[in-house]
Design brief:
Elements: H1 2-20, E1 29-37, E2 40-48, E3 53-72, E4 75-94, E5 101-120, E6 124-125, E7 131-132, H2 134-137, E8 139-145, E9 150-158, E10 168-177, E11 183-189, H3 199-206, E12 212-225
Antiparallel strand pairs: 1-2, 1-12, 2-3, 3-4, 4-5, 5-8, 5-9, 6-7, 8-11, 9-10, 10-12
Length: 226
């Protein structure tokens, strides 16, 4: 509900500027861009709403996987982890001073997920007479994700892809998603099952992260203008 209110406020703040510039012809300039940042690599399409307002639609994404083994207390523990992020954004750039500086506001479909699996791959010798096999020791799986996919975004940046001058422009922006806190889920089996009791402490730490920072740099190319 809080994020919904923030989205409505962002839209209401933008509407007066759209109305003020309504006499300016819209959608007669277009540019495309390529970006790199905290959400991976992406692309965007930009068009004008007025002399001071540009509309941008963009997509970006990143995926990383990692596997390996660690040795702890003479036990080999294997792990597999995968993290992915995808973002579909619709934002408005407001060039307050009619130059490259801009205020940015909009809505983002933000999908962030981390999955991990860990399990012993070798026996654990408890004593001279007792050894636990890997299947007896068990395994743990964990997932971190955001419960809400649609998030308001506010930021600052520089670069006007549709301004006069060179057709190729550099752009950069820094802002935050009002994401709310990520949620952790853990499941386990075997003798290491009690380890998942730590989920409460870990979740308390995650609750402190109510914002997701976004940094982007990129280059745009003016396609045409009337």
């Amino acid at each position: 509900m809080k994020k919904t209110r923030l989205t409505i406020i962002a839209v209401l703040l933008i509407l007066p500027f759209i109305k003020t510039n309504a006499q300016e012809k819209a959608f007669n300039k277009y540019a495309i861009g390529f970006t790199s940042g905290t959400r991976g690599l992406g692309g965007e399409i930009i068009t004008n709403l007025s002399k001071t307002l540009n509309l941008r639609a963009s997509y970006s994404g990143y995926r990383h996987t990692e596997s390996g083994e660690n040795i702890e207390n003479d036990v080999t523990i294997g792990y597999d982890a995968e993290g992915s992020i995808e973002a579909l954004s619709l934002v408005v750039d407001y060039h307050l001073f009619k130059n490259s500086f801009k205020l940015i506001g909009g809505i983002v479909n933000h999908k962030f997920e981390v999955n991990a699996y860990t399990a012993p791959t070798s026996p654990f010798k408890f004593s001279d007479t007792k050894t636990f096999l890997p299947e007896e020791l068990g395994s743990i799986t964990a997932q971190v994700s955001y419960p809400n996919k649609w998030m308001p975004y506010l930021g600052l940046g520089f670069g006007n892809s549709l301004s006069e001058g060179k057709k190729v422009k550099l752009n950069a922006s820094l802002g935050v998603l009002f994401s709310g806190s990520p949620e952790l889920e853990m499941q386990g089996s075997g003798l290491i099952l009690p380890t998942i009791n730590q989920v409460i402490d870990i979740q308390e730490g995650l609750d402190e992260f109510g914002f997701f920072p976004i940094l982007n740099i990129g280059v745009t190319f003016l396609l045409f203008k009337e």
